[in-house]
């Protein structure tokens, strides 16, 4: 099995991160803006987000994108290259971050069910698109790929 091409993981992860950050911006800056403001007000947290909070959230999007493409690269030898494998990586990351991450705020009453359902559904689509976009950039090192193919033969 060849080694993961870390340079391409980073590059594909940055592409996926751009998708994540743009879609999160649309989600929370437009679609859910009023609900987010209401929820933050109920928690006595100022709405709008400071520059540091916005930077941290964007960094989080890039980290999520890089981890998603890294997972794609890790499962690619078993499942094959392509969008189906990318969707599997995106689905896993969605379950681990969005679905699981929304469970506790839902259970303890921070999120209303409609907010949770909207976020989880939207982020499912977001991570599917981000995973496919990032995976499209990922390529194995040609020398390493031919060595691992020869070793398997």
Structural descriptors:
153 residues, mainly alpha, 82% helix, 0% strand, disordered C terminus
List the helices and strands and how they pair.
Elements: H1 6-31, H2 33-42, H3 51-79, H4 83-107, H5 113-137, H6 142-152
Shape: elongated
Number of domains: 1
Major sheet characteristics:
none
The total strand number stands at 0
**End-to-end C-alpha gap:** 12 Å
User: Any low-confidence stretches, pLDDT <50, length ≥5?
Assistant: 144-153
3D architecture notes:
By secondary structure, the chain is mainly alpha-helical. It has one domain (6-146). The chain is built from six helices and no strands. The longest helix is centred in the middle third of the chain and has 29 residues, at 51-79. The protein is elongated. The model is unreliable at 144-153 (pLDDT under 50).
Give a nutshell description of this structure.
Helices cover 82% and strands 0% of the residues. It is built from 6 helices and no strands.
